[in-house]
Amino acid sequence: MDKPLILIDGSNYVYRAYYAISGLSNSRGFPTNAIYGFTNMLLKIIREWEPGYLAVVFDLRGPTFRHELFPAYKATRKATPEDLVVQIPRIKEVIRGLAIPVIERQGIEADDIIGTLARREDEKGRAVVIASGDKDMMQLVSRHVIMVDTMHDKTYDLAAVMERFGVEPERVPEIMGLTGDASDNIPGVPGVGPKTARRFIEEFGTIDNLIAGVDRLRNPAQRKAIAENAALAILSRDLARIRTDIPLEITREDCRLGDPDREVLKVLFREFEFSALLQDLQPSDRELAGTYRLLESTEDFVSLMAGIREAGAFSLEVIADGPATQANLLGIALCLSSGQAWYLSFTEDRDKGEYGAAVKAGLAAVMGDEGIKKYGHDLKAAAIILEGKGLKPSGLHFDVMVAAYLLNPTRRNFELPEVAREHLTAGVMSRGELLGEGARAVTFDRVERERRKDFACRRADAVLRLVPHLEAKIEEGGFRPLFYEMEMPLVMVLAEMEAKGVLLDCGLLKEMSQGLDQLMTLSEKKIHQLAGERFNINSPKQLQTILFDKLKLPKGKKIKEGYSTNSDILISLALTHELPAEILAWRSMVKLKTTYVDALPLLINPATGRLHTSYNQTVTATGRLSSSNPNLQNIPIRTLEGRRIRQSFVAAPGGIILSADYSQIELRVLAHLSQDENLIETFAADEDIHSRTAADVFGGFPELVTPEMRRQAKVINFGILYGMGAFSLSKELGVTQKLAQAYIDEYFHRYKGVKVYLEGILAGARKDGYVSTLFHRRRYLPEIMSGNAVVRQFAERTAINTPIQGTAADLIKLAMVKIADRLKGRNMKAAMIMQVHDELVFEAPLEEKDDLVLLVREGMEGVAKLAVPLKVDIASGNNWDEAHS
Questions:
Q1: Which of 345, 528, 680, 857 has its CA 20 to 30 A from that of 813?
Q2: How far apart are CA 870 and CA 538, in angstroms?
Q3: Is 245 exposed, middle or buried (0-12, 13-18, 19+ CB in 10 A)?
Q4: Phi–psi pair at 78, nearest 5 degrees
């Protein structure tokens, strides 16, 4: 039996793909969200239907016969977003690369082309599948024609259309003639909705019969509406009816699906940076190939070390089980020329004997030689593992993960297989593919040595081949100083911080846990008393019943499960009732206890007795570092409980904790970037910026500013930084939207340079598709041209904030590199142990305190010359909280 002809409504699919995915672009800032979404939708159809015949049909701009009938046809449609316009030609390139014909005709809508082709096949008794989400297409459904909506996984046959409209497919235009269609600006009959239209057509059959029998309508208003709008109803039906008799010189055979042009698709998918789609073209059985050998003799080892010294560079891949700071090192792959790699194993008995000792000594010498460049993927983790085994590396020159992140920080995945698929002609196996996923995953020591060897060598080989590709892109993008002077030196700084770790007072945490248990019990009792009954506080459904049904508190955001009980809702409800406030307090205690108080001691490394967080260099789009396992960024600063958690971060006996926190770093960056005279003057005079802003915005002298006025000015200052509008500012300040707008207007009146700067940032982002920090870190924002106001406004806020927040992040990274270098240069025992937002935390012997204060202040305040002085608040104590006093 012949396979069906599949006709895809290309224009409909393009828009659906565009709005389904936002914020996707390649490393050059070219928007790719619609291309990616469309391609995946198309591939899903091919995969599920295995069609023999397929075509994608598009509309072309310009008038059609419907515009002649009704000049206002589609007049209310918004212009196609600019970031979608540029993607449409590229989508068609992908379609043609898949060997699928593209059908489009000037003056003829895609609906009419699809209708004509579908009718021809239907008359010949051949199956047709129309892929679209447009309800208009349902009028084409017949015995041989069905419509599929892949976005919602729905199929419409004759029965489904009858269920949807209450009439046969051929009478769907009669329904639409009465109801109209707002998306196409088809007017219909005023006051006639879907239910009424359905009843009319069920009774009269057609609009013509309805007009002829209008006197039979009992409802006077309906009778009048049909009588007065008879011509409009007929016109609307004609506009909604899809033509099936367009002259087309296209046959079924013209739509036969051919073999994809893989080379064309590879070029396109590499350009768009569609790693997953590249993987489909280059399945894992087409892995990178080379000669990968196990290093088993002293002669081979000596020869390899000599080759490395001669080459002056090599790539490496470390194979180990467990977290980096507790890892069991199993082996290392070394590669100094493409396609040639060796694997050093540390697992066999012979690897641990005299030969193993000689290998370790020779390897330590090469690893520690700063003149020999090391390449890798996630060199931070490799450095921690190697240092733990006495193989501390230096000369970390190129990390392909960091390079890929720098080129496009908004992409979601920087794993080696993804980076390799994008830049190489063959892929590498992921850890998940080798070890398995989830509950079935095994550790490396359960994998036979030969497979470990191939896996590690192939990865080291891929890294070596990737370096020139990525290095060229870094040069081309102007990222060389950012990469080599900031990001790469930072790799080793972070590795040393993680390896050092932090000392915890577990006794204090245990005491705090017991105290929180008692407080939570009292809080639960109070909650139940306020509610008038016992209920499960963790149950959103039961909480909804108490708040909205029993206590009749105002309902907020509607969600699938009823009404939201999130923090924002509870905060607003707490203004009028005590129960929501108590629930918020209980939730806060539960979070602190489970996330930190009880969890932190379990994360202590038994070998070191210290807590070792992981600093993530390739996660945030702004360039900020983040931390995980545990996340130190989210420990509350202002609450009593949060301060007590910080008290558990202590110094070793005879030592101190020193905290150095940039003062108002983002506002100082804003002053420099905007060159606003008032901001520069305020910081130069070392005035309190929030008091000065309060005086400027609210009127009066700085000395007359009250704490509440200063608080509000602080909200305004940071609101401007984050692109906050009057609506959000009014919520933050608890004032009317009109008053919030007046504050913003007055701010920009006083700080004209800031207004000019922010307007310039937005104009530049629209022109270039990206924004940059002071150190030329980029963030691509293709969605800033989105036709969706919500998406566009979010991009605009991001465009305003990123250069400021990103520059602040760059400054602290650069300071970390310089301070670490100076600590080494002076052979100090002090160590940088934490980085949290704009703060650096150190542990040092008491006798080094004064020298450390001077060194840190100089390193942070002198990291860059700005138009305003950088200022650092430094304090010390026995624990982290005391260092904030």
A1: 680
A2: 46
A3: exposed
A4: -75, 155
Close Cβ partners of 697 (under 8 Å, ≥ 6 residues apart): 713, 716, 743, 746, 747, 750
Quick one: tokens of 794? 């979010």
The predicted-structure confidence for 677-693, as pLDDT tens digits, reads as follows: 999 999 999 999 999 99
**What's the pLDDT at 285?**
43
Residues making up the chain, counted from first to last: 885
* CA–CA dist 676, 687 (Å, integer): 15
Take residue 703 and report the two structure tokens written for it: 């000395």
Q: Which residue has the tokens 């407080």?
A: 519
- The b-or-e profile of 511-544 (16+ CB within 10 A means b, else e) is ebeeebeeebeebeebbeebbeeebebeeeebbb
Residues 63, 258: Cα–Cα separation, whole Å? 33
Q: Which own/partner pairs from 559-567 qualify as long-range (CB within 8 Å, at least 24 positions apart)? A: 565/540
| Residue pair 397/373 in contact by the 8 Å Cβ criterion | yes
Q: Kindly give the residue spans of alpha helices, DSSP state H, lying in 577-639.
A: 578-592, 599-602
The CA–CA distances, whole Å, from 82 to 30, 198, 461, 767 equal: 12, 39, 41, 11
User: What strands lie across the sheet with 831-836, from one edge to the other?
Assistant: 831-836, 839-845, 655-662, 872-877
Decide if 814 contacts 864 (C-beta within 8 A).
yes
3-state helix/strand/coil string of 76-124: CCCCCCHHHHCCHHHHHHHHHHCCCCEECECCECHHHHHHHHHHHHHHC
What is the model's pLDDT at position 284?
A: 45
Helices (H), 408-553: 416-423, 431-435, 449-477, 480-481, 488-500, 506-531, 540-544
Evaluated on CA atoms 455, 458, 459, 460, the torsion sign reads positive
CA distance 146 to 140: 8
| Inter-axis angle of helices 726-733 and 707-721, nearest 10 | 150
Residues of the chain under the 70 pLDDT cut: 1-2, 282-286, 348-355, 425, 560-561, 787-788, 885
Instruction: Determine phi and psi for 429, rounding to 5 degrees.
Output: -70, 140
Tokens found for residue 856: 């840190």
